[in-house]
Specification:
Helix content of chain A: 25-40%
Number of domains of chain B: 2
Strand content of chain B: 15-25%
Structural class of chain A: alpha/beta
Radius of gyration of chain B: 31 Å
Shape of chain B: elongated
Largest sheet of chain A: 6 strands, mixed
Oligomer: heterodimer
Distance between the termini of chain B: 32 Å
Largest sheet of chain B: 10 strands, mixed
Strand content of chain A: 25-35%
Largest interface: A-B, 33 and 26 residues
CATH superfamily of chain A: P-loop containing nucleotide triphosphate hydrolases
CATH architecture of chain A: 3-Layer(aba) Sandwich
Structural class of chain B: alpha+beta
Chain lengths: 239, 400
C-alpha cells in the first residue's frame, strides 16, 4: 500500500442501504466529506441520523453501497469495489478512539499501546519503544506498567489515544471520546487530539453530542437523514 | 508478539487456577477409574502368578476354578502326577467368604492348600512375616490386606485358626485378600453344615426306605458317613517339567483323564475376558461419561470466558487482529486449562489411590494417554468458543 500519511481522507457520494425491497433503509444518501491532514473536524447529528453508519464506513468496518472513499492517494471503495485487506487497512491506516476506552484488560498500559505495531509485525522492542514515546507525549508514561483497571477515566482515554496513534495512521476516528468525562477532562482530550493531529499530520474525525467540545471545532459536519452539510465552527482556542 | 492467552491467564489466574482445580479433580477421578481397571487386571495376573501353576485342571466343561465352580475328586491329582511332563500337582480349593476375627469380619478368599512349603503349586510364594503352614489343621497364612496379625485367632465356619504367617499381594481376581488354610479344613469348610441341618439331613436319610432297608445293617451308617465327608477339591494345580510345553502336558490330561485343562494364557483370557469383562465395560462406560462431562465442562468454561470478552474481541478485530490470533488465544487458554487440570488430576489420583480398598494401578502409559485425551478434549471444547469469537462483528466495538 502506498504511503498515505499527510494526505487526509475524502469521501464522495457515499451511500449505504440496509436490507432489500420494501424493507430497505437508506442510512446514508450521498455523503461528502473531506478532512485534511492535521485537521480535527466534528461530526454531529441526532440519533438515527446515520452517524454510526458513516463512522463504520469510514472505519472500513462495513462496506458502503455506493460512492467513493480515498485515504491519501489510495482508493478504499469505489462503486462497489473495495480494497482487498480491510483488516490490514484498519490496523495500519486507521486509528480508533471510542466512547469507552476499551483497553484490553489483561495487558498493561505499554502493551495495550504496543499491541498494534506488534500485530503489524514489528519487533516487540521497537513496538514498546514507540508506545513509550507516545505515552510520554500524552503524559501517562508514569502509568506505563499499570493495568487499565488501575487508571482513572482520563488516563484510560489518553492511553486509548496513544493506541490510536501508535501506527501513525493518516486518519483517526473518535466516537464520542469525551462522553464519560467532565468538562475539564473532555477539553483536555480534545486538546490532545488537536496537538497529536498537528504533530503526526493526522486527520481526526470526532463524532460527538458533547456541547462542551463542539465550539472547539473549526469545521463541523452536520448529518441529518443520511446527508451531511458542512459549516464553520467557532474554533475556540484551547489553553 | 506477546502471548494474549498467557497474559489473560496471568491477569485472571485465580479464576483459571480454581477452574483448573475443579477440572483436575474430575480428571483425577477419570485416571483413578482407569487405575481401578488396571488394578483388576493386575489382580487377575497376580492371582495366576502367585498360584505357581503352569496348568489348571478343572471339572470337564467348566471355566473353573475362578470364573465358574468346579469339583474334582481329591484323589485325581495322583493320576495327573503320573502323566508325562508333570513335575508337581497339588489339590486346591477356593471359597470366598467372611472370615471372622473377634467381633468383626473381613471378606477374603479362603484357599485350601496341602501343607508343604514354598514351590508347591498353590502355596503362598513368599512370606513377609511368620512361617508357612506346617500342621494339618487350624493354622492359617493371611495376606496383610486382611488386617490380621501373627498370632491372631480367626474363625472360619465353626473352626478357629491361628495366623502363623503373613504374605502380601495374594488376592483373588476380585481383589479380596487370601487366607490360606490346610486343604482338609478347607474341604470341610466348603460343605460343613450346622448341627440342626445335620440332624435334619440324617432324619431325611433315615426316612428314605431305599437307604434304610431293613435287613441291611450298616447301610444307613455308610450313607450318612458319605454325606458328612467332602472328597472334592476345586482344581488341581500342575507344574510342568522343563522341556515340555504347557500344551504338550495339557493335551494327554484332557484326553485320558477326561478333564478340562487350561494353560496360563487360556486362564488369563478367561479371567480378563470373562470374569472381569463386565466390570471393565462398566468402568469403560464411566470413562466415556467422565470424558464427555470433562469436555462439556471445558467447553462451557471456555465459552463463558470468551463471551465475557466479546467487547475486547470486537476491539481486537476492529484494530486489525487476525482471526487466527484470536483463535490461538482461545485455544491456548483451553489447553492451558486442560494442563492445569491434568497436573492437578494426576497429583490427586496419585495421592488418593493408596486409600482405595482395592488395588489401583496408575500406569505411566495411562497417564500419557490421559494427557493426550485431555489436550484433544480441550482443543475440541474450544471450537465452540472460537466459532463464537470469530462471529463477533468488529462493528460492535463502535456501537450505534
Amino acid at each position: 500500500m502506498a504511503e498515505l500519511q499527510g494526505q487526509g481522507i475524502r469521501i464522495e457520494g457515499l451511500k449505504k442501504r440496509y436490507g432489500e425491497g420494501d424493507t430497505a433503509v437508506d442510512a446514508l444518501k450521498g455523503v461528502d466529506m473531506q478532512v485534511a491532514p492535521g485537521e480535527v473536524v466534528g461530526l454531529i447529528g441526532p440519533s438515527g441520523s446515520g452517524k454510526s453508519t458513516l463512522l463504520k464506513c469510514l472505519g472500513a468496518v462495513i462496506e458502503p453501497t455506493a460512492g467513493r472513499m480515498t485515504l491519501g492517494s489510495d482508493v478504499i471503495y469505489e462503486e462497489g469495489w473495495k480494497i482487498s485487506d480491510l483488516r490490514a487497512l484498519r490496523r495500519d491506516k486507521i486509528g480508533f478512539v471510542f466512547q469507552a476506552p476499551y483497553l484490553i484488560p489483561f495487558l498493561d498500559v505499554t502493551d495495550n499501546v504496543a499491541l498494534l505495531p506488534m500485530l503489524a509485525g514489528r519487533p516487540n522492542g521497537e513496538a514498546r519503544q514507540r508506545a513509550r514515546e507516545l505515552l510520554e507525549a500524552l503524559d501517562v508514561a508514569h502509568r506505563a506498567r499499570a493495568m487499565p483497571s488501575q487508571l482513572s477515566g482520563g488516563e484510560q482515554q489518553r492511553v486509548a489515544i496513544a493506541r490510536a496513534l501508535v501506527n501513525r495512521p493518516p486518519v483517526i476516528l473518535a466516537d464520542e471520546p469525551t462522553a464519560p468525562l467532565d468538562s475539564e477532562r473532555a477539553l483536555t482530550v480534545i486538546r490532545i487530539l488537536e496537538q497529536m493531529a498537528r504533530q503526526y499530520e493526522t486527520a481526526v474525525i470526532v463524532v460527538t453530542h458533547d456541547e462542551k467540545i463542539i465550539p472547539t471545532f473549526r469545521r463541523i459536519y452536520h448529518i441529518r437523514d443520511g446527508r451531511t452539510h458542512e459549516e464553520a465552527g467557532e474554533g475556540r482556542v484551547l489553553q | 508478539m506477546i502471548s494474549l492467552a498467557g497474559r489473560d491467564i496471568l491477569h485472571a489466574w485465580g479464576k483459571f487456577v480454581f477452574t483448573g482445580l475443579g477440572l483436575g479433580l474430575l480428571i483425577g477421578v477419570t485416571l483413578t477409574m482407569a487405575g481401578v481397571y488396571r488394578g483388576m487386571v493386575d489382580d487377575a495376573k497376580v492371582l495366576l502368578d502367585n498360584s505357581g501353576a503352569d496348568l489348571w485342571v478343572v471339572q470337564q466343561g467348566t471355566l473353573g476354578p475362578y470364573a465358574e465352580s468346579s469339583s474334582l475328586y481329591d484323589d485325581t491329582y495322583r493320576g495327573i502326577r503320573a502323566m508325562p511332563g508333570v513335575a508337581r500337582a497339588a489339590n486346591v480349593t477356593y471359597l470366598t467368604m467372611q472370615v471372622r476375627r473377634g467381633d468383626g469380619d473381613v471378606r477374603a478368599m479362603v484357599v485350601g492348600i496341602v501343607p508343604g512349603g514354598p514351590g508347591e503349586p498353590g502355596q503362598p510364594g513368599y512370606l513377609v512375616a511368620g512361617r508357612q503352614i506346617t500342621r494339618g489343621h487350624y493354622e492359617a497364612v493371611a495376606d496383610v490386606a486382611t488386617g490380621f496379625g501373627l498370632g491372631d485367632t480367626i474363625r472360619i465356619r465353626r473352626n478357629q485358626y491361628t495366623v502363623v504367617g503373613l504374605t502380601r499381594r495374594m488376592v483373588s481376581s476380585g481383589g479380596d485378600p487370601m487366607v490360606f488354610i490346610p486343604l482338609k479344613d478347607a474341604q470341610e469348610a466348603q460343605f460343613l453344615k450346622d448341627n440342626d441341618a445335620i440332624v435334619r439331613s440324617r432324619a431325611r436319610t433315615a426316612g428314605n426306605p431305599a437307604l434304610n432297608r431293613p435287613g441291611v445293617p450298616g447301610l444307613l451308617d455308610a450313607v450318612i458317613a458319605s454325606q458328612s465327608a467332602n472328597p472334592y477339591v476345586n482344581a488341581v494345580l500342575v507344574q510342568i517339567e522343563p522341556g515340555y510345553t504347557p500344551e504338550d502336558v495339557a493335551e494327554p490330561i484332557r484326553r485320558w483323564k477326561r478333564l478340562t485343562v487350561y494353560t496360563r494364557v487360556q486362564m488369563e483370557a478367561i479371567l480378563i475376558g470373562k470374569l472381569i469383562a463386565t466390570s471393565a465395560k462398566q468402568i469403560g462406560m464411566f470413562l466415556v461419561i467422565l470424558a464427555i462431562v470433562s469436555a462439556a465442562i471445558v467447553a462451557f468454561i471456555i465459552y463463558t470466558l470468551t463471551l465475557g470478552k466479546i467487547r475486547e474481541i470486537a476491539v481486537l478485530k476492529l484494530i486489525g487482529t487476525r482471526n487466527r490470533t484470536i483463535a490461538a488465544m482461545i485455544l491456548q487458554q483451553a489447553v492451558g486449562l486442560g494442563l492445569i487440570g491434568f497436573v492437578v488430576g494426576k497429583i490427586a489420583a496419585t495421592f488418593w489411590a493408596p486409600f482405595f480398598p482395592k488395588y489401583v494401578l496408575l500406569e505411566p502409559g495411562d497417564a500419557l494417554r490421559g494427557f493426550v485425551a485431555v489436550v484433544a478434549i480441550c482443543v475440541l471444547a474450544s471450537v465452540l468458543a472460537i466459532r463464537a469469537a470469530l462471529k463477533v462483528d468488529p462493528a460492535e466495538a463502535i456501537g450505534g
